[in-house]
Amino acid sequence: PEAVQQVAGHIGMVLRSTGRVKRGLGTIRQDVNVSIAGGARVEIKGVQELDLIAEVVRREVERQVALLAVRDALRERGARVDHTVVDVTALFSGTASAILKKAKSILAVRLYGFAGLVGREIQPGRRLGSEMSDYAKKCGVGGIFHTDELPAYGVTADEVACLREFVGAGENDAVVIVAATRQRAGCAAEQVMIRAEMALSGVPEETRKMLEEGSTAYMRPLPGAARMYPETDVFEVEIGAARWERIGVPELLTDRAERFVREFGLDEALARQVAFSERLPTFEKAVAAGVRPTTAARTLLATCRELARDGVAVGRVSEDELLALLSAVEAGRAAKEAIPDLIAELARTAGAGDGAPLDRVDAAIEKMAPAVSEADVEAIVHRIVAEREAFAREKGMGALGPLMGIVMQEIRGSVDGKVVSETLRRELKRLLA
After folding, report:
1. Which of 27, 37, 265, 335 is most buried, by CB atoms within 10 Å?
2. Is the distance from CB of 71 to CB of 120 less than 8 angstroms?
């Protein structure tokens, strides 16, 4: 199952590497075909989430294994399907079951040797009876009742006993009942018998739909070979050597991540996050503009994600504004430490005017981080160290970290942390000399 998911992930990665496909749920149709030895090919439609593919395959294998076990048990019992539909409407004339009480017609099907197997679980939350119900629902009924689950749903033990006696069901037999209009109930009863016959053979070839958590339900029979034909009104297109040479093969996202490690010095985890991120184009534009790759990557991924988690509408900040902000930081007009506050300010003021991205970034820098000169930094550092001289002498250079936090809090990210650290280190050395 995990190998199937990995292959699907690789196919998706190759498609995304082209830069010409949409992303997100519903943008691509993924069908999963599963078969096991002794089972049958089953096509599962609508598997949209990559992370669920392994679980879908695992549960389908479990279902087929369980159905083969049911088949073997039925054969040992000499089970068979009595193709007789019995009208049992009168038996339930005084029933307390709301569903049966309002039904115009209640029909029963006797399944020889099926007792205990109709209610056997074949997938988490799914039983053989669920499979029969799926077939019956194609006739417009809401579902079925069967004696493996009764008494329940307002049906009493006495009513079950009368039902079994009326249709001639023995101890090892199961009885299925359907309630609806006469026409729909008759159609549903026929479908139940068809599915019961299939159970005697094992696993039917089907097209199924995925349910929540990875289980599946019947949709329709699997199309035959007649479905597999080429488009008759589309001519073949030959691709010659010259055209192959003109076709630009895109760099795979996995290869791009490896290149980011080699060229930019990103660690493998961060490089992969960038390569597979929707912000990849923004990252590449930022690096091309001279922004340090690590700064660009951490801002576009970690910082934006953390701000969004805190309720900041990061999506309101345009790509051009992010690029202008990163360029301003690289040019020394704003400190790296101010980036979160600046993005939050840009998000807060988005839509307030039609200013150009660069102008909006400059305004945010001016508001959030007033200019602090090198002399101002030295004065602030000198004052803070002097106020905490006893602490600094006790901790020595170990006081650097705690004091750094106090200084950065006061200057609010107006100066690059590296500059502050160097200034503070010099001041501590002077004090301790």
Report:
1. 335
2. no
Using an 8 Å Cβ cutoff, are 69 and 92 in contact?
no
Summarize pLDDT for 274-290 with one digit per residue, the tens: 999 999 999 999 999 99
Taking only Cα atoms into account, the Rg of the chain, rounded to an integer number of angstroms, comes to 35
Residue at 399: amino acid letter: A
Give the start-to-end residue ranges of the domains of the chain: 1-70, 78-205, 253-368, 374-432
Q: What is the pLDDT of residues 318-332, one digit of tens each?
A: 999 999 999 998 987
Distance CA 203, CA 41 (A): 9
The continuous run of DSSP H or E covering 429 comes out as: helix 417-432
CATH number of 78-205: 3.30.1360.30
Tens digits of residue pLDDT in 234-289: 778 888 888 888 887 889 999 999 999 999 999 999 999 999 999 999 999 999 99
CA dihedral 320, 322, 325, 331 (to 10 degrees): -80
3-6 contacts: CB < 8 A, separation 24 or more? 4/32, 4/53, 4/54, 4/57, 5/50, 5/51, 5/53, 5/54, 5/57
Q: Say if residues 65 and 71 touch (Cβ distance below 8 Å).
A: no
How far apart CA 7 and CA 15 sit, in angstroms, is 13
